[in-house]
Design goal:
Protein name: Iron chelate uptake ABC transporter family permease subunit
Membrane topology: Multi-pass membrane protein
CATH superfamily: ABC transporter involved in vitamin B12 uptake, BtuC
Strand content: under 5%
Distance between the termini: 48 Å
Helix content: over 70%
Family: Belongs to the binding-protein-dependent transport system permease family. FecCD subfamily.
Oligomer: single chain
Number of domains: 1
Largest sheet: none
Number of helices: 14
CATH class: Mainly Alpha
InterPro entries: ABC_BtuC-like (IPR037294), ABC_transptr_permease_BtuC (IPR000522)
Keywords: Cell membrane, Membrane, Transmembrane, Transmembrane helix, Transport
Radius of gyration: 21 Å
């Protein structure tokens, strides 16, 4: 008697394919991290890079690698993962395919806090501006959620988008008014708002790494509630999800992720907007996998753009935010064009 073979569930095959897909993504991230450490105004051989990291080598090259390039690369990885995962969570909570830190007022809140601090305390180094930017981003996130929560329906996706747009306009007006009146505030904002990894070395990393670490780890485990929210409020509630505390918790995670990233490097556009959509082409709509892939491919985009920015000019470099903006705009337009629409 011939026994019909039992086929494995289709979901198991998809899970295996997604796991396998992480291998080349992680390999690409590792390669870019090594290139980020080795390449720059003075290129360093891979053997010398390893000797410098392990402490076996001394001298100018070793100092540059240990004190500047390694912290810069680590920061690029953390910022890329935070922005990509934060954008994913925002799109899921707001059920808005265009949600990102800029749209919901997080970047504008950070900028407003920086110029207000400069007005009060005068010109300050980037390391001091970081804390004001982080506080501004966190306050903006809380305000957006609080404003959208008014009413019996709570923080619905439409109200979140409207609250974010209103707060963005308010913060932009405050920033413009202060900049017109105070040149010191303009100088401080110019140093912070360029959207760059250059100059953000060990001191910035030491200040913000706990927020990055906690935010990224927690974000890896919020895929299930995001999947339930994507089904709609009524169905999510019927499946046992408590909408108000869940959205509040997710916004707190976004505040840690995007607030730390924006405070560290200034506003870097398109990472939180574009990476989740690109990842959906690989993983489908399951937020558990979107978050995992975003944690890998977000740093790939940031490090790749940073390397390009270092090599474009013979002397000096192009900030990573500028490179991502130039490359990201046409890529996102093509993504929308060939998919017909941007879907969550």
């Amino acid at each position: 008697m011939t026994q019909t073979p039992v086929r494995a569930p289709a979901s198991a095959g998809r899970r295996t394919g997604r796991l396998i897909g992480l291998i080349p993504a992680a390999g690409l991230l590792l390669a870019l991290a090594m290139l980020s450490i080795a390449l720059g105004s003075r290129d360093v051989a891979p053997v010398d890079v390893w000797d410098a990291i392990t402490g076996a080598a001394q001298g100018a090259d070793a100092t540059v690698i240990r004190d500047m390039r390694v912290p810069r690369t680590i920061l690029g990885i953390l910022v890329g993962a935070s922005l990509a995962m934060g954008g994913t969570i925002l799109q899921g909570v707001a059920r808005n395919p265009l949600a990102d830190p800029g749209v919901l007022g997080i970047s504008s809140g950070a900028a407003a806090a920086v110029v207000v601090a400069a007005l009060v305390f005068g010109t300050m180094p980037t390391g001091d501006a970081v804390w004001f930017a982080f506080a501004g981003a966190g306050i903006a996130t809380v305000l957006v959620y609080a404003i959208a929560s008014f009413g019996t329906e709570g923080a619905t996706p439409v109200k979140l988008a409207l609250a974010g747009a209103a707060l963005t306009a308010l913060c932009a007006s405050i920033t413009s008014a202060i900049l017109l009146a105070d040149p010191d505030a303009l100088n401080t904002l110019r140093m912070w708002q360029v959207g760059a990894l250059a100059g953000r070395y060990g001191s910035v990393l030491l200040q913000l790494w706990p927020f990055f670490a906690v935010g990224i780890v927690v974000a890896l485990f919020v895929g299930r509630p995001l999947n339930l929210l994507s089904l709609g409020d009524d169905l999510a509630r019927s499946l046992g999800l408590r909408l108000v505390p869940t959205r509040a918790f997710l916004f707190a995670v976004v505040a840690a992720l995007c607030g730390a990233a924006t405070a560290a490097c200034g506003p870097i556009v398109f990472v939180g907007l574009m990476i989740p959509h690109l990842v959906r082409l690989i993983t489908g709509p399951d937020y558990r996998w979107i978050l995992v892939y975003s944690a890998v491919l977000g740093p790939v985009l940031v490090l790749g753009a940073d390397i390009i920015g270092r090599l474009l000019l013979p002397s000096g470099e192009v900030p990573v935010g500028v490179v991502i903006g130039v490359l990201g705009a046409p890529v996102f337009v093509l993504l929308v064009r060939f998919r017909g629409s941007v879907k969550l």
